[in-house]
Design goal:
By secondary structure, the protein is mainly α. It contains 3 helices and 2 strands, in the order ββααα.
Length: 107
């Protein structure tokens, strides 16, 4: 699954102890989703469902998840992939599963 995609780290930073995505990583994720949704990046709502609202196909969704892993170094467990349905959920999963995150490397 997408959890096996190799990538690099470095786009995550900690601010006041809370893990947050860097502006660059968030921007690149929004841009990737926008390409698949055929929308302007400024119109992407982070809580919009990838498939039912933004119209992504299952292949588009896997591409977005693989891109997120590659950018962040996160490895999403295969059983979690079906629940990553919005940009906000992907961002939370990156914070959790990136190197040094609360579940580094998955279960």
């Amino acid at each position: 699954g997408a959890g096996a995609i190799a990538g690099t780290c470095g786009s995550i930073r900690a601010v006041t102890g809370a893990a947050v995505l860097s502006a660059e990583l968030r921007t690149r994720l929004v841009q990737r989703v926008a390409v698949h949704a055929r929308m302007e990046p400024s119109r992407i709502d982070p809580d919009a469902h990838f498939v039912t609202v933004l119209g992504l196909s299952s292949l588009d969704l896997l591409s977005v998840l693989a891109f997120a892993e590659e950018l962040s170094g996160a490895r999403f467990p295969d059983e979690m992939l079906g629940s990553l349905t919005t940009l906000s959920k992907v961002e939370a999963a990156i914070a959790q599963y990136r190197p040094g995150g609360t579940n580094e490397g998955g279960p």
